[in-house]
Write a structure and sequence with these properties.
The protein is of the alpha+beta class and 579 residues long. Helices cover 31% and strands 26% of the residues. Among the domains are: 52 residues, no CATH class; 67 residues, no CATH class; 61 residues, no CATH class; 170 residues, Gcn5-related N-acetyltransferase (GNAT) (Aminopeptidase, 3-Layer(aba) Sandwich). The protein contains 22 helices and 32 strands.
Length: 579
């Protein structure tokens, strides 16, 4: 896009602060001034300024000078808004005025714009303290609309938990925060699990066989259906809840046994092995093996001694990734940090539970970053993977480990063809091969025998002068030698940029690919995600001022039951393109 030459008169007409005749690009941001007071207004793209002034024929005014931001208010109007000073006068849109809280009758200040907006929505005028903590009175009709079980007219706080009934069957569906009920009702009526998904989910024959069901015919099964199960020890049939069977097999990685098999192993104090394992949060299968092989005394040591047992998360990793060694709770060369698994003599793997590695459990914000740097300073590398990544993306984690162990197949980039990738193909590729999943940007890939084996997605920043690498991944269990370099060099031929930037998550990456391709380390900062103990969420999913209440990010997170889990550092790399 060629820049256009503008004279001094044309720039004055466009209200630019700098009226020196010069070439200006359409997309270039320029400083504009108010048409009345001539004070600096803001920076805007020249195309938008021309559209507003030349095409729409309107002047650009600041808040103080705009006639639309002023209005004359009568005494009755000011009284209806709750203002303390009801003298008839003209008030600016952004002017701060004093008014009385409808709850505590105390005085507080707010802008006239906010007051008018709250009044138009029939919201009470409350001070900051009352808006957060004061309960609101609900009539019977309001409680019926909220689908509450208890319809007694009363005051309820936003953070108070209430029983909600299903809109179809009328049974108690959930016990949830009142604020969460209101948000859920915006998308439709609240339904229980039975009514929301009346058919249940479809399960294949292999999935039903894995769950030890007697009838393995592919079909829809509801979570609360009672199904016939085959005991893994005595092969007898018994019945249990389908949801419980699924939880035992998939999440806990246990085999399902009948009550007789669970209760026949009894210790001298009269308790069963199953009961004691549950009380001490130990795996029943592991405890039963120790009890059978070594006797009661060693079994009780197993219950009390943390060194002899893996937690469920570590057990899941051991069962799904071969070639790594559980580090058995022993310190590493007197380090203050203990790794969970050993991959090689120099590389270790940590599995981080979302709750126990979050701020909620008291972990310092820089815990993971300090741990990583401690290992690096002593010539070691630690890979830190989170609980939700283990359960949801175990194939990707296994591929990362196998790549380190040299178990991946090798493809040379010189034998691959570079070409653009469709949005559908790139989305599936990154969801299957990248821990962070897909991001909307421009994807390009390397194809080997018409199969996508490596993909890089980029975006253009800062008026087209900067190229950012958003994602790079190779196919699972595949190492593409020279893939990063070939993709980057071919992409640079398509764009005329001055520099390239990219961010590296140091929990599981090293940044070596950037250094080898001429990038420089610019800075390092600490990042975080939100978590609810089960999943992680991007930090932008909960930020300040998301609605008219103008709460902080932490206050919104508290409503959702979220808290922060910090990473091991986000490093920014940059490469300047020489012309």
């Amino acid at each position: 896009m060629k820049p256009i030459t503008y004279t001094k008169e044309e720039l004055e007409q466009l209200q630019l602060v700098d009226t020196t005749p010069r070439h200006i690009n359409k997309s270039e941001k320029v400083a504009i001034k108010c048409a009345k007071c001539k004070e600096y207004l803001r920076n805007s793209p020249l195309s938008e300024v021309k559209k507003s002034i030349l095409k729409q024929g309107r002047e650009l005014l600041c808040n103080n000078c705009s006639d639309l931001k002023h209005k004359f208010y009568t005494e009755e109007e000011l009284k209806s808004y709750g203002l303390t000073d009801t003298t008839p006068r003209q008030i600016k849109y952004e002017e701060i005025v004093e008014l009385k809280c409808e709850s505590c009758s105390g005085l507080f200040t707010n802008t006239m714009r906010t007051i008018k907006r709250r009044s138009s929505k029939h919201l009470p005028m409350l001070c900051k303290d009352c808006g957060k903590s004061k309960p609101i009175f609900y009539k019977k009709e309001d409680l019926e609309k909220l689908q509450l079980v208890d319809l007694t007219e009363r005051c309820i706080k936003k953070q108070e938990k209430v029983d909600v009934k299903c809109n179809k069957c009328g049974d108690v569906a959930y016990n949830m925060l009142l604020d969460s009920v209101k948000r859920s009702l915006k998308t439709g009526p609240i339904l229980c699990k039975k009514c929301a998904n009346p058919k249940g989910l479809f399960y294949s024959k292999e999935e039903l066989e894995q769950l030890q069901l007697v009838d393995t015919t592919p079909r829809y099964v509801k979570s609360l259906d009672i199904v016939a199960i085959i005991c893994s020890e005595c092969n007898k049939q018994f019945t249990m809840n389908f949801q419980s069977a699924k939880y035992r097999v998939i999440r806990q990685q246990d085999k399902i046994k009948c009550s007789n098999c669970l209760s026949k192993y009894i210790t001298s104090d009269g308790k069963t092995v199953y009961q004691l394992c549950g009380e001490h949060n130990k795996l029943f299968d592991t405890g039963l093996k120790i009890f059978k092989k070594h006797g009661e005394e060693i079994f009780k040591q197993f219950l009390l001694d943390e060194k002899h047992s893996q937690n469920r998360l570590e057990q899941f990793v051991s069962n799904n990734i071969e070639g790594i060694e559980w580090y058995n709770k022993q310190p590493l060369y007197n380090f203050p940090y203990r790794p969970d698994f050993k991959i090689t003599d120099k590389i270790f793997l940590d599995i981080d539970g979302l709750y126990w590695h979050s701020e909620k459990s008291g972990k310092p914000n820089d815990y993971h970053m300090t741990k990583r740097k401690h290992y690096e300073n002593h010539g070691f590398r630690i890979i830190q993977i989170r609980e939700d990544e283990i359960y949801n993306k175990i194939d990707i984690v296994r591929s990362m480990v196998y790549n380190i162990l040299g178990k991946s197949s090798t493809i040379y980039a010189r034998k691959c063809e570079f070409k653009p990738v469709t949005s559908i193909d790139s989305k599936k590729f990154f969801q299957d091969n990248h821990l962070m999943g897909w991001k909307s940007s421009r994807p390009y890939g390397l194809y080997h025998d018409d199969e996508l084996v490596a993909c890089m997605s980029v975006s253009i920043k800062h008026d087209g002068s900067v190229l950012e690498i958003d994602r790079f991944a190779t196919k699972l269990n595949t190492h593409v030698t020279g893939g990063f370099s070939k993709l980057l060099s071919n992409i640079l031929k398509l764009f005329n940029v001055q520099s390239i930037i990219s961010y590296c998550d140091m929990r599981y990456a090293t940044g070596d690919s950037y250094i080898c391709n001429g990038f420089q380390l610019i800075n390092e900062r600490l990042g975080f995600h939100w978590t609810d103990k089960f999943d992680t969420y991007n930090r932008l999913q909960c930020r300040a001022n998301m609605d008219e209440r103008c709460l902080s990010a932490e206050e919104y997170a508290q409503e959702k039951g979220w808290f922060k889990i910090y990473d091991a550092g986000q490093v920014k790399y940059e490469k300047i393109i020489s012309k």
